[in-house]
Amino acid sequence: MLLPSRRVAAVAPFLAMDVMTAAAARERAGGSVVHMEVGQPSAPAPRAVIAAAQGALAHGRVPYTEALGLPALRERIARDYRDRYGVDVAPERVVVTTGSSAGFILAFMSLFDAGARVGVPQPGYPAYRSILAALDLVATPMVLRAEDRFAPTAELLRAVHAQARLSGVLVMSPANPSGTVIAPDALRALCAAARDLSLPFISDEIYHGLGYDGLPSATALQFDADAIVINSFSKYHCMTGWRVGWMVVPDSLVRPIERLAQNLYISAPYLSQVGALAAFEAGEELDAVRDGYARNRAILLDALPGLGLGRTHPADGAFYLYADVSDLTDDAAEFCRRMLAEAGVAATPGLDFDPAEGAHHVRFSFAGSEDDCREAVRRLRGWLG
Ligand SMILES: Cc1ncc(COP(=O)(O)O)c(C=O)c1O
Predict the structure, then answer these.
(1) 382 alpha carbon to ligand 1 midpoint, in Å?
(2) What residue stretch is flagged as signal peptide (predicted)?
(3) Ligand 1 within 6 A of CB of 217
(4) How far is the centre of ligand 1, averaged over its atoms, from the C-alpha of 206 (Å)?
């Protein structure tokens, strides 16, 4: 029998996928499911994106691109930093990637040697831990607290570094699973602390563009020109399966990352890059999708307290609510299994995001339709009410 490497053995399974499998089985058996377990928009890619990709496909030739991406796309992304945040980014510092997922691999590999410890938020996106483990790096949790809105702080970073001697730090805003936006001043302080401690600062900004009546999403580049910013067309632009994202990196990392990208995957998919370029023309369509999430969020926030789920951080951005279910259960995984089996609502147990405290939380995604959200509330009322 072939045994997997020690590194791969350290990669945890994704419980959300188990929920998806159980939900699919229920649907095959004729049951209905409201899907709130999946972190992806139900809306299709914008019309302009589809038209651009169809146009390119009609030419027949779908080539590799340069490893760092199509020059026109890199330029357009760079321009967006000026338009959106007032930050000057040279197009040469933009790297087009196969989703932000590839961005993490490229960032971690280019910055850290085996055994290095990287501070990551907990609760947080589980792939950070898994990718670090797969690369023989160590994810060091920065434990976030509900009373701090699940936002990391400069003090927390200093405290974790004092204990663990980090080699780098990663933060995300808006966050998965809490939806927390790090306030601009707090992000500035985090960047300053990282610089003080000589730690590379990696900022996952994949949910930018998805904010609700609250804090503006600042980019780390406003506060640290050397921050490594990772972003994607998956979420705001509704292009999950196109697998295209980007990074902004300091000059010193461009060539190392180019060498890695050339060897690891040659280039991000050409058609997806052509589509991504057109996504910048689709602001109106995409803002309308975002306004739909805002309505979904309002429906859920209105209903949850009456369901015993009042201790839910209201999500400044992204499309998740991270509900504290400790009044109802101390086993969120079992709670999610029963919620699916008995109410036909699929959601993700918190253990995916937080191995320590996740048994008390459930993540609901509100990236689906308004009808889905209303139906979920109706079913949960019947089940929990
Ligand atoms: C916080 C966060 N970062 C990164 C990703 C990966 O996205 P992609 O590889 O599609 O860009 C996700 C996906 O859910 C996420 O929630």
Answers:
(1) 33
(2) 1-24
(3) no
(4) 7
Give the residue whose CA is nearest to atom 2 of ligand 1. 125
- Tell me, using a 6 A CB cutoff, whether residue 173 lines ligand 1: no
What are the structural domains, with CATH classification, of the chain? 6-44+284-384 (3.40.640.10), 47-282 (3.40.640.10)
Query: Is the minimum distance from the CB of 317 to ligand 1 under 6 angstroms?
Result: no
Q: What is the pLDDT along the chain (385 residues), one digit of tens a residue?
A: 888 888 888 888 888 888 889 999 999 999 999 999 988 899 999 999 999 999 999 999 999 999 999 999 999 999 999 999 999 999 999 999 999 999 999 999 999 999 999 999 999 999 999 999 999 999 999 999 999 999 999 999 999 999 999 999 999 999 999 999 999 999 999 999 999 999 999 999 999 999 997 778 899 999 999 999 999 999 999 999 999 999 999 999 999 999 999 999 999 999 999 999 999 999 999 999 999 999 999 999 999 988 888 788 889 999 999 999 998 999 999 999 999 999 999 999 999 999 999 999 999 999 999 999 999 999 999 998 7
Is the CB of 39 inside a 6 Å radius of any atom of ligand 1? yes
Task: Please give the model's pTM, rounded to 2 decimal places.
Answer: 0.96
Give burial (CB, 10 Å; 0-12/13-18/19+) of 277: buried
- The reply to whether ligand 1 has any atom less than 6 angstroms from the CB of 204 is yes
**Nearest protein Cα to ligand 1, atom 13:** 39
